[in-house]
Amino acid sequence: MTEASTIDPTDQQIEKVHTAAIRFAGDSGDGMQVAGARFTDASAIFGNDLSTFPNFPAEIRAPAGTLPGVSSFQVHIADRDILTPGDQPDVLVVMNPAALKANLHDLAPAGTIVANSDAFVDRNLEKAGYDTNPLEDGSLDAYRLLAVPMEELTKKAVEDSGLKGRGVLRSKNFFALGLMAWMFHRPLEPTLQWIDRKFGKDDEVRAANEMAFRAGYHLGETTEMFRHTYAVQPAKLPAGTYTNVTGNQALAWGIIAAGQAARLPVLYASYPITPASEILHELARHRNFGVRTFQAEDEIAAVGAALGASFGGHLGVTGTSGPGVALKSETISLAVMTELPILIIDVQRGGPSTGLPTKTEQADLLMAMYGRHGEAPLPIVAIASPSDAFETTIEAARIALKYMTPVMLMSDGYIATSAEPWRLPDLEDLPDISVKFISEANANGEFLPYLRDEKTLSRPWAVPGTPGLEHRIGGLEKEDGTGNVSYNPANHEKMTMLREQKIGRIAEDIPEIVVDEDEGAEVLVLGWGSSYGAILAGVRRVRAREQKVARVHLRYLNPFPKNLGEVLSRYPKVLVPELNRGHLWRMIRSDFLTDAIRYSKVQGQPLKASEIEAKLMETIES
Amino acid sequence: MTDTTTHSRQDWQSDQEVRWCPGCGDYTILAAVQNFMADLDVEKEDVVFISGIGCAARFPYYMNTYGMHSIHGRAPAIASGLAVARPDLSVWVVSGDGDALSIGGNHFIHALRRNINIKILLFNNQIYGLTKGQYSPTSEQGKRTKSSPWGSIDHPFNPVSLALGAEATFVARTIDMDRLHTQDMLQQAYDHKGSAFIEIYQNCNVFNDKAFIKLTGREEREINRINLEHGKPVVFGPENQWGVVMEQGTARVVDVSAVGIDRIHVHDAEADSPSGAFALTRLSHNPIGPTPVGVFRKVQRPTYETTLQQQIHDAQASRGPGDLSKLIASTGTWTVE
Ligand SMILES: Cc1ncc(C[n+]2csc(CCOP(=O)(O)OP(=O)(O)O)c2C)c(N)n1
Ligand code: SF4
Ligand SMILES: [Mg+2]
């Protein structure tokens, strides 16, 4: 918590703070994701800047009460612009001993623990590996411990709801949420309205959740131990209308927007996989937008369907995670050869193989770059944060359509599931990314499907249904111009170069890098994707320590912006933090011979501002 | 799209030189398709052929339509995306036994089950032609090939049984040598709304010659070929002296004179249950004895793309056409001055 000042108007102590990070942790069945998301939405509507980090196990229901079954949701709220979910929670809400055990090491020094004491019974303590009850044995003396019998109080609170039996205890997450709403002066309305919308059809559940929520809030109001509360003022963000978005949601909306900006119907084909499935869910919900969603039998079929749609003149999009991209690889090469536009979304997760399906990583970059047979270059565009997903998705579609090429759009589990405020764009200002289908012969009365545009080197898009332009494309090497099958050695080399040059020319069509730099900085930190927030926050901390640093965050990973080589050459030290073993680091070494410093983290967790800060200080001082 | 007139067979021929081995059954199938299309009420630009990889998969190059020679096994997936996006087109898949049933088996069954309006032609030569003669998923057990010098161990698929099991709404079988029958099957597949599957026995005279001789040889075909006709008793032979009876769900060949014509199974391609059709497919596995050809099954079920269009239509009718500015604000907003 960054402190502002302490005031004490009555007997109630309201501490004004600039930022606070709260983590809700419990069993995967305890509803912690819901509690966190509701706290987040109330904070968004209150006007705080915020950033969230949901962290859940791969199993839908790992054995109750065990460490692997712990699910958590961290939300960072602030009265100014923040970039990460916070390195350490200031307040840790734990619903059982396992949640305490799994999360305590992250808690800020002297932080607050709000514990559901009813769950700290022998059986649960044993499952979590505690010999004695940490709420009683003094081991938490370094923290502010608030033990609350949440189950008993929830039962009492919902007595009149009509709900009976075990279902009663389900509402305890709303009790905990109510308590936090009190502690952080959150408005109650957004949550009450949400409960009403969500459970309106089931009167008893609706009533129970509402009663538990109010009871939690009320307990805070009336209990001595909750006298001390925190106020985080609304943030002074740039003027505009904001909403709170997750990366997957904004990406799905970006797909709809890309179709509108291109004036093309969209077909989104996908096979469910964490953490990409929500994109399919979101698009399937909104049938009235005309997006055709296609749940394919596997990822190969999904990319095939997208390619088929694109052959038919639609914007074909397919989304998946790393294992799915591996399956799509052969078809992506076909799209390179047939020069048809498709968008492939890779919401990366920890690998190899099933790896850490619910955790984040950036270790698919080299697969995106090189993971195909033959010489098969394609553009790669990366999303930096949930609020960046909408615009970057449209940009990826623009490149695909203009250059008639498959494009890899990189996201990851952290971007996909975390949320932050997003200033709603003016949709009148959507870029026009439409392209023209060719409608008549292009070479003295003849149609040449591989006759290229001189500037972009892209080939014409002739869609079935256009009279006179009947033609055959396919995976066999094409003769330059005619597109007929050709085994001619010189032609193959020529076509290989043309495909490469076409992608290379995109560098002329994307913005050059603008460095965020301090005059005289000797260290440049270079990032891509979801490390955006942590890197910028880390850079700010270093600057607050009056050190000089320069920062570049790449959206375009292939081709690189034109001036990247020149920019890199200006700095004696280039630091490349990534959630992998050095993918971008390798790429710049091989492209520019930059002797960059690799900073790698592969724990399935995002980078922290403090980690960047420490590494930058070390690099500056070395 | 121009006004419809019929075309000549030449109109459907592309300028590409056909490159199958001389004598290959693929030639006769190509001729049958071009002939059939010549009489169709459809324009070239509205027809698309999509294939995978194999000898058969060269097919789209020879048709003067839109086409894609894609990758091994994936044609049904690509065609599905195209047909879902563009229900106005006539979309055809050309595939081989390895392409459709081995590497592409998954896409094949799912395309059939979804009832997307694509027509899948399986050129079954019971061998891998393009890769020079390995056994395929339809090769008979014990077949000696380069990859099975001791005789293949695999039990083969019966493609028509498989298609019925995959919930296909139209299933037929024909023979490359019989152009008129092939054209009839093509016409019925074309007229069918939804996915249609035609197994075409195709002779690979280089790597698996005479695999279908029992159905194509002058004398053999007289005694082995069973022509299925909807609503007619299943009889065959030079004097229709043999017939098929159903006993506890199993089809069996009998002398008609021994049981009487009334006991002979009457073929019902439109029956709700595919059981009768399935029993007929089991008469022969590899065609070495009496083997049915014709339409096994032809039933109506809403197609995938019409249902999808309907859902879009209904969603627009009830919610209005999508308004993106409302959607992005739908989870709650706040304003910073
Ligand atoms: C991914 C992949 N694996 C293998 C091959 C090699 N391959 C090409 S065609 C073929 C078999 C073709 O057999 P079939 O589908 O029966 O067609 P036919 O040549 O008999 O018409 C194989 C194995 C390939 N092209 N792609
Ligand atoms: S190998 Fe067989 S199937 Fe292939 S073209 Fe030659 S004869 Fe036809
Ligand atoms: Mg074959």
How would you sum up this structure, described in words?
Chain A has 19 helices and 23 strands. In chain A, helix 5 packs parallel to helix 7. Chain A folds into three domains: 230 residues, Pyruvate-ferredoxin oxidoreductase, PFOR, domain III (Pyruvate-ferredoxin Oxidoreductase, domain 3); 187 residues, Thiamin diphosphate (ThDP)-binding fold, Pyr/PP domains (Rossmann fold), CATH 3.40.50; 106 residues, 3-Layer(aba) Sandwich (Rossmann fold), CATH 3.40.50.920. In chain A, strand 12, helix 11 and strand 13 form a beta-alpha-beta unit. Chain A is globular and about 90 Å long. In chain A, strands 1, 2, 3, 4, 5, 6, 7 and 8 form an eight-stranded mixed beta sheet that branches. Chain A has 622 residues and is of the alpha/beta class. Chain B is built from twelve helices and twelve strands. In chain B, helix 1 packs across helix 6 and helix 3 packs across helix 4. With 337 residues, chain B is of the alpha/beta class. Chain B has a single domain, classed as Rossmann fold (3-Layer(aba) Sandwich), CATH 3.40.50.970. In chain B, the strands form two sheets. An eight-stranded mixed beta sheet of chain B has the order 2-1-3-4-6-5-11-7, with helices on both faces. A three-stranded antiparallel beta sheet of chain B has the order 8-9-10. The radius of gyration of chain B is 22 Å and the shape is globular. At the A-B interface, helix 1, strand 9, helix 8, helix 10 and helix 11 of A face strand 1, strand 2, helix 2, helix 4 and helix 11 of B. Bound molecules: thiamine diphosphate, iron/sulfur cluster and magnesium ion. Iron/sulfur cluster binds next to loops of chain B.
